[in-house]
Amino acid sequence: MGKIANIEYFRVPPRWLFVKITDEAGNVGWGEATLEGHTQAIEGCLDAWIKHYTGLEADEIEQIWQLSWRTSFYRGGPVFMSALAGLDIALWDLKARKLGVPIYQLLGGKVRDKIKVYSWIGGDRPGDVREQAYARKEQGFTAVKMNATEDVGWLDSPKVLNDSIERLKAVKSLGMDAGVDFHGRLHKPMAKQLAKALEPYQPLFIEEPLLSEHIEGIKALSQLTHNPIALGERLYSRWDVKPFLEAGCVDILQPDISHVGGISELKRIAAMAEAYDVAIAPHCPLGPIAFAANIQVDATIANFAIQEMSLGIHYNVGGDLLSYMKNPEIWKVTDGYVDLMKAPGLGFEIDEEKVRELSKGAEAWKNFSFTGPGGEIREW
């Protein structure tokens, strides 16, 4: 046992928030509490929890998780759950490092030796996808994901969807699989059309075909298309996930480990999803700590499908997935897979000196926004 002696957080480029926990014996663990576009809110939540949690037993991960959830009264949501994720991941890392084992050994052990991954192409206003997909293929990827469209009006001309089809065809012509992310940008009149139009070209999945607050619309859409429907990055707990599983309208669940309260909750969500024959493909356009934490859980769950990897994603300006690692070679992609790490804790070594250096004066990342031709705000 060892009490929490210190909790620190570091805002680092391009848009990440790392958390470091140290116990009284000097054992250390790292977590990631990134919530894109809301860094200051997470920092405020962490400030409050640091005051309350210093002195608690670092080994009692579940007790700290429940303390964060049940004593908040106003619980859940992206801010609380992302702040909690930073603490939870760091506590798992600390405990596993102290015991000299990978985190997956504390979660029941591994069921696979390598992890299937995909990366992004195309950007927020997608273009040049064939060239970018070819570059990913050269890096070792066999699957990619791209945005389906630019911003689209509530009811727009059907011709705005034509480029989506051509982009999917271009990537498929390289022999690669491609997930198509609607990104919640399309509303029902357009999403219905695009889902049907993409069917002949067999996307790996269509992601967030509608915003998650429209569960009735997603359920109706799921009955109109045979494309696998993926969603979940804007669901923040097992209670948020539950109605989607019960409605039978999701095929691939994409919880984000940095938004659902960390390793503890992702493992529980995966177990729930397995009972509904739903695959898990964790959302992770984030940093190396979040990616490593996902891999630790992915290694242990039977219904894992594929893992998002932010290497080279268009948001990574000023830093990339491997920038803060001392041993980046461990994530070499071969035939669409990365090998499961065997080192203790999260399985990689963070460059703390670089973290501290680049956190000085780091600006909080701000979400992009789209405006339509009439001056109206559109979904990003």
From TrEMBL:
Cofactor(s) required for function per UniProt: Mg(2+)
Record-linked InterPro entries: DgoD-like, Enolase-like_C_sf, Enolase-like_N, Enolase_C-like, Galactonate_deHydtase, Mandel_Rmase/mucon_lact_enz_CS, Mandelate_racemase_C, Mandelate_racemase_N_dom
Residue intervals of the Mandelate racemase/muconate lactonizing enzyme C-terminal domain: 126-228
GO molecular function: galactonate dehydratase activity; metal ion binding
Protein name according to UniProt: Enolase C-terminal domain-like protein
Domain of life (superkingdom): Eukaryota
UniProt-listed NCBIfam families: PRK14017.1
Keywords, in A-Z order: Lyase, Magnesium, Metal-binding
Xref: PANTHER family: D-GALACTONATE DEHYDRATASE (PTHR48080:SF2), D-GALACTONATE DEHYDRATASE-RELATED (PTHR48080)
Any single GO BP term: amino acid catabolic process
